[in-house]
């Protein structure tokens, strides 16, 4: 039985900053950010937007009255959880109007969480072929103002509906994975911003990819020639290209050029959105699907990495007619109809947040789903639907 991604949706906040503007405000050479890091724009969420609201926005693109009743599993991969006890997935069952007989929970392991959800969902459908699973990656990447990681911030969500006989990507049940206790990135419960050892994290990321790629080749008797593209977790778009350097001198030059060209198609969306943490790999997938010249039944390799650390390399086959299952117009509108703000506005928004007892000014809301108030320390969500 074929199992995989049947539909995919995406959301990012309407406000963004230009990375050149950020570089100038921080007295940095713009080339350091645009060429060295590989970013152009960065999404800026409003105080009424969080992992729950963005997940709902993305999920609404893949749900309708005909498939909601088929969903038996809802998993949210996030490291931007809004509650230390209650899963963000439970807020979504209400916002999205899902049936009560659904398993709904949240997975946290840095940027790997959504992949853990994807693999769990695959196993669920294998045991329940008549059901569907909704897996959502939703995150706000925050490092703080005027910090080394500021240029790699971002926000957004990617929602994936998994089923038997998928129309977008068949998961091939081939993977290699590894876990190590590594101190490259962390966010203590008291902090709203992350801590990172940037160069060390890059080193571990590359080591994980190198090890897992070697294991994958041996385990499944494949080479780079078997894949049309290699997609990566990209907190910033130059990170995947650093990992690809291990291929240099080890594979045919023509094939390497092909993979590098495919990679450029996969980072187009990431360049203008920024870091999605758990969603970065799947934004890469979406960018590749909508920008590359794809062959029928094309086989691709996906590298998922979550600091701390967990990594997985797995493969999938793109299905014929996959674009018919994607709401391309909506995704294009989300990316094209955004509002550029200046750095002062961004800094003001960055410091804002809803406190206990406060309500959101409904007149200022530009999204469908929003945090309406915090009442008795409980987050209350609403929608304009």
From TrEMBL:
GO terms for molecular function: hydroxymethylglutaryl-CoA synthase activity. It comes from the Bacteria. The keyword Glycoprotein does not apply. CDD domains: init_cond_enzymes. Residues 2-164 form the Hydroxymethylglutaryl-coenzyme A synthase N-terminal domain. Belongs to the thiolase-like superfamily. HMG-CoA synthase family. This is Hydroxymethylglutaryl-CoA synthase. It comes from Companilactobacillus mishanensis.
